Amino acid sequence: MTSNPIKATLLFVLLLAAGVLLSQPEEIVEDEVIDIEPKEIISLIDVAKLLDSKETEIVLSDFEIVSTDNDSELLIDKVFFSLYEIKQKNIAPKKIYFYNCSFNLSDNAPLIFNGWHLSKLNIIGCEFLVPIIFEDTEPIGELSVLIENCIFHDDFKLVGDKLPIANINLRQNSFATLLLIDLPLRNLKLYNCNFDANQPKFTSRDSEKTYYQLNLANGYFGNIGLYNNEFNNNELSNVFSIDMEASEIDELKLIKNQLQTINLSYAEVGKSLLIDSLLVVDYIGILNFDFPESNSNIPWYNLGGEKLSIFYTEESDLVIPYQAKSHEELSDNLKYNDLLSAYTKLNTLYHDRGDISSANGSYVEIKDIETRKQAFTQKINPTLNNLINHKLNVFLRFFSDYATNPGKSLIQSLWIILIFTILYMFTFSRWDGMNYRYYLHQFSRFSEYLTTDKPIDAVFTKEITLNNNDIQELRRKYETEGKEMPRILKLFGGPLHFLGKFRYDIIPGLIKLFNFHPGRWADITTKRKRIWSGFLILFISILFLIYVVIVKFINSLLLSLNSFVVIGFGALPEEDEWFAMYLSIIEGMVGWFLLTIFTITLLSQVLQSV
After folding, report:
1. What is the pLDDT of residues 96-107, one digit of tens each?
2. What b-and-e string marks burial along 548-566, b requiring 16 or more CB atoms within 10 Å of the CB?
């Protein structure tokens, strides 16, 4: 220890401190709230000196960066505003890390980092209250930029035309106005970022101009991936979400993004395009959007809902979407043709990929637009031919989604059959024999049973005897000739015999077994028995009504089916009843027409699947 007095002294101090701590009595340690230390405040000139030091790896952590009078040498006056610019003097490559820093310039002037030679840039957990611009960054090697958990209260721009940057990753950031990336870039990925438009800032800008929250227009990109990002324009009509107009992109992936508007006009995707779980509220600009037909996967549910639009820009840079909905838009034939061309291009893609569901969905929207065009044409220049075509399109949309949905056409046919079934229930049919005379006969027999002392078998004697004779004859024929009868007759003969016995033997027997109302109604003297008998009469009447409805419904359904499919029996089954006969004729014509459309729809879908 004598050879190194400094080390000896330090060791002595540590031993002495340890002895003092051990000699103190044990105390109960209470939980204390740890206060977060405030950030150290530094000026822009201090930041410039730190960044331009000789160190190649620079870390700025827990600083609040403000502007002071000493920063005047960094202030540059423009025509209408001033900005702060920090340039690199020492051109050695730098690795720069910003951690938990706050940029809060007092005069809200933009801050530009200009001409920096960077091999790495990380910005994590920082807050920017002023516009931030990285301009003409010179990438050294495979430059990767990571921006994570940051809050941008104003514009954030990465611009330049130097060598392409390798990677820019933005994760879990919040943007209040604009994120602009206008530089050559190989890989751009945005994960879980939130673009929430600041209403006061956008309202203070020119209302006759369209602004974007993410601007990637006119750029050259290798791969772009946007994953699980959310855009909210807070109901500002001139604020759109994403602008990729006229950009050249090798690979584009849009997965689980929510936004208001995306502009893909004149953009070109060279190698692959993948879009899924894309929720667009308003518009998708699609004019002259080029994509690889052999390597594009865009299910139609991402684009459907008549969101495809043609964007045209006014002199004030205000974007006006065209969707062929209003009369004014439908009168513009050039834009109408451009819109249909964009739809047709996507529809062709789906057919080539064998995505029948998406092909049908896009085709339905094409026909919807054409139907609107026909309605507009009929209004300004009516012709019989156009009227017929328009009404046929309207009907085909209702019946089968323009011959793309055989399931829907079958369901609509069933509804037509059911409607005619209900109409047939109010007509007489020889198949069930239920007419006005039948109801009077049943009422007369039941009244006789209630007003006389006759038992039920006496009231129904004649009909029961006649029908029992028929039933017994059927039974004998079934037993004696059973060996010579085909099995199909045996199959139907048994149920017919059972139904006959049930109607004419079992039901009256059940009434007789329960001994309902054994005497005349007039002989019932007590109020309690009258109430009980009245309740049973009502119950039997309801059962009879249910029986009539069921029988009439089944009979009418069979008659409706027979008429709808135009089977017939060489003559109309209800030719003795004029109303039912005319209904059969009308339903036969309707059924022939609808079944033809159903057949065509089914065949078209089968052939597309081959």
Report:
1. 999 999 998 877
2. beebbeebbbbbbebbbee
CB atoms within 10 A of CB 196: 15
Task: List pLDDT tens digits, range 502-536.
Answer: 555 555 665 665 555 555 666 666 777 667 777 77
Closest to 602 in 3D by CA, of 404, 351, 306: 404
What's the rounded Cα separation, in Å, for the pair 153 and 148? Answer: 15
Distances (CA, A) of 596 to 421, 520, 564, 589, 602: 21, 61, 12, 11, 10
Residues 6+ apart with CB under 8 A from 83: 75, 76, 109, 110, 111, 112
Angle (nearest 5°) at CA 410 between 408 and 412: 70
Nearest to 196 by CA among 227, 245, 235: 235
294 or 248, which is more confident? 248
**Is the C-alpha dihedral spanning 18, 23, 27, 33 positive or negative?**
negative
Q: Residue 447's pLDDT is what?
A: 64
Mean pLDDT of 253-263: 96
Around Cβ 273, how many Cβ atoms within 10 Å? 22
Contact 100, 62 (CB under 8 A): yes
Q: Is the dihedral of CA 278, 284, 285, 287 positive or negative?
A: positive
191 in Cβ contact with 216 (< 8 Å): no
| Residue 350, amino acid | Y
Q: Are 493 and 478 in contact (CB under 8 A)?
A: yes
